[in-house]
Amino acid sequence: MTRIEGHPIVRKERGTPFTFTFAGKGVSAYPGETIASALFAGGIRVFGHHPKDGAPQGLFCANGQCSQCMVLADGLAVKACMTPATVGLHVEPLDGLPHLPPIERAPEVREPERKDVSVLVLGGGPAGLSAAIELGSRGVDVLVVDDKDRLGGKLVLQTHRFFGSIDAVHAGTRGIDIASRLEGRVRDLPSVEVWLDSAALAVFSDGLVGILHGATYAVVRPRVLLVATGAREKSLVFKGNTLPGVYGAGAFQTLVNRDLVRAAERLFIVGGGNVGLIAGYHALQAGIDVVGLVEALPECGGYKVHKDKLARMGVPIYTSHTILSANGAEGVESVTIAAIDKGFRPIPGTERSFACDTVLIAVGLDPVDEFHKAAAEFGLPVYAAGDAEEIAEASAAIFAGKIRGLEIARALGATIDEVPAAWSRMGEILKSKPGPAVERASLDLYLGGGVGAVYPVFHCSQEIPCNPCTSVCPQKLIAIDEADLRRLPEFRGAEGGKACVGCERCVAICPGLAITLVDERGEGGPIVTVPFEFPSDRLSAGNRVMVSDDVGTPLGEVSVLEVKALPKNDRTVLVRVRVSRDIATRIAGIRVQEPWISQPLPEAVEPLGDDAIVCRCERVTAGEIRACIREGYRDMNEIKIVTRAGMGACGGKTCTALIQRLFREEGVSLADVTENVRRPLFVEVPLGVLAGASNEGVGRRVDAKVRGKGAK
């Protein structure tokens, strides 16, 4: 593994490197970098071995939701993905169970910090920040709590442009830049306070919320609680699913887009939703080979423009396929997939294996809703926004937070109008699922088409909420139904005496890279402008490139005339190629990955039997769980007692849904199943912290309290 230099989108000042040790050997790190990221950058992916069977352990979620990346840092067991590396830190692999460090004297027990606030917002992502802005702009005192070292949530991982409304949710702007905008607005509000590196632990029956605030324990009493804690990634059961090198899309994007760590050499993706499709594109931008993507459904569930973008760049997408196994000893060496029938059963004889070192799991999200459920149970006024309420796109979370902020302000007595009907309508549009793909009208029918003309070509053929292209056309020749921004864009040709001037702004701003510009005004054949978001030094005038249509079908090699960037183009490069007229309107993209990268191995690697791991923490297999179900167990607490599934450090966050799936596969209705009793604390915390002892030594920054400008 190496660090990424010259990323086409992300610019990062790393600072001065320093050294810590892992297993007695020096590892280089940069200020603010987690132990996990530094280890990955140093080529280390095995962080320890499980005490039950010696299985290698590594990174999985990179979000503090599981316990697979545990290491010993200065003698304390910590999560490598959440713990910053520091100068001289001594880190050891966690091989077996950790031993408690010796205690020279009992720490002094202190009362926790106490704070009253009108609104406590759990989560500093798009929903939480948008709500805080609405509340803070009306003078409501707000405390925003987030367990990361910066605001923005998953926005800080999103280097692509956003879909949605350009006016309502910053569509056409990259997620990383939206995070900065929202953070800036929050910090300008004197009534909004921010606690970073602070994890919410529990909601209690007396209306208090326990928070690990930096290095100490605090309790907050809010009048209203807003839960904007986002979502956690779902896991998947298959042979080898816990090998180092099998991890979630969020972990991958954290390493690649936040920390600029080249987290893989050859990547295989499981899941064709937006998360998996976008992660594949991010991998290509980072110079990582994407061997392929499998999706169990007949069509990918993500936006078609995302799928098409991957396909035309050279990534094969296998729909109606599933993963059978990740193969390797101490890490992933290959992956085996197979076609599936309508009952989602693998079809014998269709197995294929591909060499890869990383398998990215992107099979959906579950809301992090424990805090909302507990608050509702105890009668604390509580609202939810973003993925904690309903899984949707980040643009929908931004607008949902805006609506919740207004609702909470009204509930607290602010003299403001009800939520406008237009807001509610926009919120529903942004949360809507993509529509079916449709056939676009022939470009020959455009009023502006034909020899001597210049005109945009839209390669989006699925109704999704998106309108940035309408905002940048100086001639106002691109239109989308004003009542519903999910409609497909239309080019109005020479309407009203105006004509396209070939400014190429629509090409540069399209979030799906789904607009090209055809210029037939000169001699020698049409010139097509194609968007390109890779290092500009990869292409130059005179290069030959393979161009493809919407779905990745090669159209032939053509010569590059020019590679340029528009002023304020926000890092999208424009490539101009001269082509024959018969393919000019069909060109949608440039292939960036050679076909040989995605070729299967000569023979498939055979998957093993029913020993896939369901409970990562306790290494409990699907066979063990099935045996309990077949013996008549219907209470997940009993299964926990017998097998220890759900008893590990993550508190059942990753295995609960998988155990429920096994019940369904065995023909047992979940209505007949008793769920696990939830842990009293939703996040692990040292007992000494709860007793008032400082936890400043490892794992928490102590300068976490930040106020808005003007606050004391």
Percent strand: 15-25%
Count of separate structural domains:
4
Helix percent reads 10-25%
Reported for the largest beta sheet, the result is: 8 strands, mixed
CATH class of the largest domain: Alpha Beta
Amino-to-carboxy terminus distance:
44 Å
Return residue spans where pLDDT drops below 50 for at least 5 consecutive residues. Answer: 442-449, 700-712
Strand runs, count: 38
Based on the structure given, which CATH architecture of the largest domain is correct? Answer: 3-Layer(bba) Sandwich
Mean pLDDT: 90
Radius of gyration: 26 Å
The CATH topology of the largest domain, please?
FAD/NAD(P)-binding domain
Give a description of the structure.
The protein has 712 residues and is α/β, with parallel strands linked by helices. It folds into four domains: 2-99 and 235-361, FAD/NAD(P)-binding domain, CATH 3.50.50; 113-231 and 367-431, FAD/NAD(P)-binding domain (3-Layer(bba) Sandwich), CATH 3.50.50.60; 443-592, no CATH class; 613-672, BFD-like [2Fe-2S]-binding domain (Arc Repressor Mutant, subunit A, Orthogonal Bundle). The protein has 17 helices and 38 strands. The strands form nine sheets. Strands 9, 10, 11, 12, 13, 14, 26 and 38 form an eight-stranded mixed beta sheet that branches. Strands 2, 3, 4, 5, 6, 7 and 8 form a seven-stranded mixed beta sheet that branches. The protein has a seven-stranded antiparallel beta sheet with strand order 27-30-31-34-33-32-35. A hairpin with a 5-residue loop joins strand 32 and strand 33 (554-564). The two termini are 44 Å apart.
